[in-house]
From TrEMBL:
Boundaries of every TraC-like domain copy: 19-197
UniProt organism field: Candidatus Nomurabacteria bacterium RIFCSPLOWO2_01_FULL_39_17
Protein name in the entry: TraC-like domain-containing protein
Domain of life: Bacteria
Amino acid sequence: MPLNAKATQEFVPIKEVRDGVIVLKNGDLRAMVLANSINLSLKSDEEQKATILQFQSFLNTLDFPIQISIQSRRLDIRPYLLLLDDRMKVQSEPLLKLQTNEYMEFIRNFTETVSIMTKSFFVVIPYTHMTFKSETKFWDKLFFRGSKEEKRAMEQVDFEEKRSQLEERVSVIQQGLSRCGINSAQLGTEEVVEVFYKVFNPGELEGKIKLE
């Protein structure tokens, strides 16, 4: 590696993920909400217009920015094939065993020729804590002149205050989505880490599931 090369982590502005909250290196917080999709084409013209107008009204009422992220990935069918293979092995009826095997072959051939994609919809909700110069000096004095225990305690209090404000925004987003007929759920720590791991390590899990 060249001497001036930098690790990938240096380009990622994330400091940590704590209690499902993304803490950036500059102290800002982010929350991620996973939302389902609705098929407008299955609705009547009146229902489509009502849904669009409701979503427009929801966006217009927000007094803070949000980011909507859509991730498209090829569906990994291998876990499903493994499940079918396990069931076929314990199947005692020869005809059902044969039919299961033929069905598995059909799934394999179909997924090799057609790319089946899955889409995940995320809403990223930010919270930025604004401080005045006098407030910044106060915190600096407290942090650098106090003990390590005091510093950790104050950092935890600061985090909880910010998270409380962020959770209020998450609640606003989820309520607005619900009025549009969209179900949503806030991601926890493990889910957030998994999302970012897949973003920065695309295709790494390929080949780890072996089918007989």
